[in-house]
Every structure is written in C-alpha cells, then in structure tokens.
Amino acid sequence: MRRAPAPALRALRATAATAARPAALRACTHSYSARRPHPPIRAATIDADGALAVQFDVAEGEEGCARWWPAWVDDNAQAAFHPSTRQRTRPVHATRRPLLLEAAEADADGACVRVRVCPQGDDAGEASTPPHTHTALLPAAFLWANRPAAAAAANAADPPHQPWAVADLPGLAPPAFPLAGVLADDALLLSLLTALTRLGVARLTDCGSEPEVVARVLARIGFARHTNYGTTFDVRVEPDAVNQAYTDIALPLHTDLPFYREPPGVQLLHCICQDAGGGGESLLVDGLSVACAIREESPELYHVLTTTPVRFEDGKGRMYAYTYDRCTIEEAQTPQGLQPRRVFFNNGVRGSTPFTADRASLDRLYAALRMFDDVANRPALCWQRRLLSGDALMFDNTRVLHGRTAIAAARGARWLRGGYVDWDEVRSKATFLALKAGGAA
Fold first, then answer.
1. What is the pLDDT of residues 119-144, one digit of tens each?
2. Which residues are 103's β-sheet partners?
3. CA distances from 24 to 27, 138, 360 (A)
4. CA nearest 246: which of 382, 421, 411, 420?
5. Confidence bin at 320 (pLDDT 50/70/90)
6. Distance (Å, rounded) from C-alpha 176 to C-alpha 399?
7. 373 to 23, 237, 285: CA distances (angstroms)
8. Closest Cα partner for 204 from 419, 71, 394, 339?
9. pLDDT of residue 175
10. I need a surface site. Which of 21, 145, 372, 389 has the fewest CB within 10 A?
C-alpha cells in the first residue's frame, strides 16, 4: 500500500481535532455500541491503485477488507447528503472532475474514516461542490453497508426464478409456512419471500378463519395494492356476479388484471371457509414452465407469443374502462440470454380488437394462444388441491396461473378473501431483512 504524504495526514488529523461529528455519524456510533450492527474500522489507507482500502475488525474467517474508488468516495461523503432526509444534495455534475485520494485515516474508536480528496485537472478550481481539496467523512456503518459483499447479500434477496412442474416441488406441494411464525419471525418471513421469488408460490398454514388475515399479512410485507376490486376482495358465489370468480362455474387458468399497465405482483388468497361439498379445488401452474415448454416444442409459436400483443379490458359500462395491450410472454435479459420472465393470460378479459388484418398472422396468434392453454392444462404442470378453512396461497400474479374447478356446494359454502401486494414491496422487505440479518440494516 502507498504511504500517505505526511502533510496530508497532518491535515486530516487537524480536521479530526477541530470538526464535530455530524449527528448522523454520532447516531451510527451510538447504535454500534448498543446493537453492534457493524464492526469498527481497524485501519484505512490509500492502496497502490489509488483506492480507499478499509480493514474492518471482524471475527477470524470473515471477510473484512473492502475498497472504493475516488469518485465513489467523493460522491458518498457525508457532506453530500442532507442531514435529516439522507437524500443527496450535491449535483451530479460535481462528480465529473478527476480526483486523487491523498490520505486516509480511521478515528481512534473505528467509527469513521476521514479521506483527503484532491480534485485534479483544469476544472479543479471550478465552482462545483466542493471545488477544492477537502476531507470526506465516511462512517463505518455506511461503509460496511455499502461494501461489495453487502451488495451481494442484497442481491441474494432476489434469487433467480426456478421453473417447476408438480414433480419438482418438495413433497409435491408448494413450500408451507405457519402464519404465526411469518407474522412474528423475520427469518421465517425472509424464507417465505425467498421461496415466493424463486418458485413463484408458497403456502401459509394455520391461518384460522379471521377475515383480517389477508390485511395483516400484506401489511407485514409492505403496502397493499388497491385495485378496482378494492384493497381486499371476497371470492364467493354472488347473484349478478361482476367477475367469473364470483360464480359457481369453473374458473380457467389465468393471471389477474392484465388490463392494468402494471398488474398486481403478488396475490394472497385465504380460505375462510369451504364446506364439505364437492368442487372448488384450487389450481396453480407455473407460467414459466409453460413458456419454456412452448419454446422447446414450437419456437415459431413461442415467437408469436413474445411479439404479438393481445388486448385485455375490463369494466366497460361499470364506471371504468381499463384496457391494455401486451404480449402473452414477456422476456428479460439474463446471463443465459433472453428468458421468459412474466406471463399474462386471461381469456375471460381478452378483448376483441384484432391486431392484424393479415389472415395468416391472425391464425398463427390463435394457434399460439391455443397452445399456451393446452400446455398450461397438462396434468404434470398443474398443482391441484381443495383448500380448507385456514389455508392460504401466495403466488406471483405475473408468473403463476391460477384457477378453480366448478363449485358443486350451495351458494355461500365457499368464501376466500384475497388481496395484492406489488413486487416492489416484496423486494424491499426481503432486501431489508437480508441486510438486517447481515448486520447492515
């Protein structure tokens, strides 16, 4: 490592001796002594590449070294943030000049690092913020939370999707989590959200028959998604039903509300009661497995499903008129190339607007939609079970298709309450819990 010039170190120490610690740093220091969310800094220096190198005081076997480049150090100094909102106040154009880190030193208690930053080049004297040689203050808690290993931990809260058929599910069923544990135990909630992200589906058990369970679970994750069906909705047989789910006929496999520009991300369905009469079995199918099967068996029809939009609409004549055009299969770029990421399939709300005047193209679209429906209804892909009172299902509404067999019991014998939460809420909670578990939150 490069030895810092003596004048630069003397300047740092003079700054440390005369400058009071900001309130944010004092709070970080206090929280460390009370809760130990991060280790103190053992040493800080400028390495041979000109980067800030920090050694944290960690237990043997833990990774305690991290480094940051000059532009990041200057951009993330505490002076760049508002003291109460913690939002950036320094304009981004202030980062355009080249920088040299002259020296770095940790405070005696390891609670922060002070770095001597020197702008270089012709614009070093411009009226940017700050335009001159200055000291950047970086709290240990902030550096620990923003080290590369912490970023990897945050990414672990959003694991890759794992397409499944029924035979791939442990115990031939989605993973189950007890409601009481999910509401009280952060580690169990993180396990649930991780399984939900990876497989697109999870079960909640021992939920009882209290109608407010859905609202409690959604609030535990984040903010519930309000839709044209409300913040929560009741699925039971109704006269003059406004949705096929509220009838006693079979409900074909589908994803909910594809007529929204951004449909709800996750759906929760809680079975409050279901009498012993026949029918009303819940169906779940992984749309990614459907998409992968079509891609393998008929690349031409897969291309149609990924490139030809279908119109979805709802509510005409009922005070609102939702409509949106989207492809049945949505792809995303991954390290393995383009892969199916989301599916949108709901024959009940598929509109009538033709997307091509060409007969051959229209015929291909209908053939592709028929193939999607046929593959989705293959028994090997469809998990089927009659929910009992106290059972609940959570699933990715932009991936997992759901449906129901016809209800043979009398009206009112089956009551499910549902609700939605967006994926932004799920990822936020999972990331926070992962960082908290690693001592960075």
1. 886 555 554 445 588 899 999 999 98
2. 116
3. 5, 11, 65
4. 411
5. confident
6. 19
7. 59, 25, 11
8. 394
9. 98
10. 389
Confidence (pLDDT) at 29: 37
What one-character DSSP code corresponds to residue 95? Answer: G
Contact by Cβ (8 Å): 291, 302: yes
Distance CA 21, CA 434 (A): 29
State the average pLDDT over residues 249-269: 97
Query: Mean pLDDT in the chain?
Result: 88
Cβ(245)–Cβ(418) under 8 Å? Answer: no
Instruction: Tell how far CA 274 is from the center of its chain.
Output: 33
Q: Using alpha carbons, select from 267, 281, 269, 270 the residue that is nearest to residue 209.
A: 270
Amino acid at site 143: L
Model confidence at 157: pLDDT above 70: no
Task: Using the structure block, give the residue that is written with the tokens 């209908």.
Answer: 366
Cα–Cα nearest to 290, from 162, 163, 408:
163
Phi, psi values for residue 389, rounded to 5°: -55, 130
Rounded Cα gap, residues 152 and 411, in angstroms: 51
CA 178 to CA 416: how far, in whole Å? 18
Q: pLDDT tier at 307 (50, 70, 90 boundaries)?
A: very high
Q: Do the beta carbons of residue 119 and residue 132 sit within 8 Å?
A: yes
